[in-house]
Structure formats: structure tokens, C-alpha cells
Amino acid sequence: MQNDQTYMQLALDLAASARGNTNPNPLVGAVIVKDGVIVGTGLHRKSGEPHAEVHAFRMAGEHAKGATLYVTLEPCSHFGKTPPCANLVKESGVTRVLIAMKDPNPSVAGRGIQLLRDAGIEVEVGLLEEQALRLNERFNHNMLTNRPFVVSKFAMTLDGKIATANGHSKWITGEAARKHVHELRHEMDAILVGVGTVLADNPQLTTRLDDRNSKNPVRIILDSALQTPLTSHVANTTDAKTIIVTSLEAPEEKAQNLITQGVEVLRVEKNERGLNIEEMLTQLYDLGITDILVEGGGAVNASFLRAGFIDKFIVYIAPKVLGGEHSINPFRGEDVSSMDAAMQLDFTTMQKVGDDLCVVAYPQKRAERA
After folding, report:
1. How far apart (Å, rounded) are the C-alpha atoms in residues 277 and 84?
2. Structure confidence at residue 79 (pLDDT)
3. 3-state DSSP call for residue 159?
4. Using one digit for the tens of pLDDT, what is the confidence trace for 65-92?
5. How far from the centroid of its chain's Cα atoms is residue 138's Cα?
6. Which residues are catalytic?
7. DSSP strand pairing (356-363 vs 312-318)
8. 275's torsion region: left (phi>0), alpha (psi -120 to 50) or beta?
9. Strands 218-222 and 312-318, how do they pair?
10. pTM of the model
11. Is the preceding omega at residue 24 within 30 degrees of 0, hence cis?
């Protein structure tokens, strides 16, 4: 059992090494072991390229016969951009397959497992399942909701402030934490802010990592009146795509000026809280956006919080105390009258990043809300 866990952990680590490169596909790793020797390894490196099992079996060759396959996700049983991996596994000659988790897609879940069992292969499901589910939280969410996975990321002082009363916020955290954020940007399809951030800071919203070729996320700007300046960094689409989400009533002339510069304008209805977040997420998913890093200010954060569309929190806490009655909080918007109205979270990890603390938390009962 211990060896099984070791080999499955290796498969999970292989899968995780491709973070940010496989969207909209899942992260998948595979390890083939025969007589206690690893004879093949593989991972899904990029969407459209061969799946993890293909790489592992190519490496193993004839040694796959009589071997055990460890794979982090149920082998696919349907034709997509590549042939189904379940057939490859069936014909490989392996006698035992350990799968960390089933395919979350309700239309195909269990089919690959059944195909292997029908072929007489011993199949076990659920080894290190919790780690596999967390690894592919974005993909699982996509399959179950047909919406992007939304991560709320913000930095704050120990007393819960993201800026001074006049809006000054550079820099709350240190250099190590800021590099950590760029790692996050590299992994995500899109980054989202409100037009207030654009007007105040004129950010580039790109990924800057010195040690590799980084991926720039799609920049999404919430701008109900199309106030984004044509001279702003986000209106320059040379290095990164920009989508501005606006209202149905926003001036068409302003929209056309932005479109001329390569900006995509997405119109959604407004509700009592502003732009309709649910409609926006549905449209963005249809455009291929599978996850979003929300880096907005207090108003944008509050709109996602009250609409119930934050799936994960990543919070950087700086060893600073700002104080003051008018310093800005991470979540603004309407007040609630009872502590019972607070969103309940589960803290999952806490780590030091330079001098700062990074806390990862998830809303409780996320599956029920989805």
C-alpha cells in the first residue's frame, strides 16, 4: 500500500508540473511500474498534445505487459482531439490500474473504468483521491457548473486593510509575495479588475517571471460605463488580450473605439448590485475562459462575494498594521446585520512567503452552492 501511494504521489507531482499549460484540459500524470521498477512516466503537458498515458506507454514499450499503471484521473473513454486513452490502456497489456479519481464529467464518468474492468484488468479507484480532486479543482468545477473557477486574491495588512483612505496600496507585501502572485497569473486563464483600478493605477496586468517564458492571462475589466482610457495599458492588446465587460446601455461609440484597438467588448445586463456576475461568467466560459483570478478592489470583491461566485481565496497578509477609520477593506458593499450572514470558510494551507503570510481558504459547502 505504501508503494502504491508513493507511485501515485509521483503521478500527481508530474501532473502538477504542467500547471497553467493544459487549460481547458485537466492536469494528469501517469506512472507505469513493473516488478518494483518504474518503466514509464508521463504527463499531459499542453492542451491538444498527447495525454499522460500516451507518454508513459511510449516510454514503457514492451515492459508495460504485466505492469501496474498509476494515473491521477480516469482514462478518457471518448474521442476528443486525441483518441480515448482507455482503449490504449486496455490494449497495453497492463494487469492492474490504480486511478486517483473518476472523470468529473457526468456524461463520461465511470465509462473508462468499466471498459478496463470488462477487459479483465484489475482496477482500483480512490488512492490519494483528495489530493487529485484539489489538483484539478478548476477542471472539476468547469465540468459540474459550466462556469469559470473564480479565485479571489488580495493582499492586506494584519488589521485587514488593502489601502489607505486615499487609495495608496503600493506596496503592502514584499517582493517574494509579489513574485508569488505572478506565478498565479501564469497558471490562470484570466485576471479581472474593475475600471477603478485601471483609472487609479493604469496596471499592465501581465505576468512577469524572470526564470521562464511566462503566460499572460486574458485581462478582464468590469466597466459598466466604458470609462477605460484608450491610452491605458489594458487597451493595448499587443502582449495580452483584453475583454471589457460593460452594460447593455454603455455608449456604442466608446465600444467601437475600444474594439478598433483590438479590445473585445462583452455586454451583460445590470442588476441591483451592478453588472450581472452570473451572466458574465457564463459568457466568459463560452469564450473559453476556465478560471479567473480576481484582483479587484473592495467593490469588485464585494460584487463576487455577495453574488456567491468566489470558489477560492488566496490572501497575503503583511506584517503591518495600518489603522484608521477610513482605510479601505478587501470587501466593501452593503453591510450585514448579523455574524450569521458571514461566508464560512475552511482554511487549507498557510505558508510564509518572504516576510508575508499566504492563506488559502475555500467557502464551505461549495458543492451544494454549485
Report:
1. 36
2. 59
3. coil
4. 999 999 999 998 765 666 678 889 989 9
5. 5
6. 53
7. antiparallel
8. beta
9. unpaired
10. 0.89
11. yes
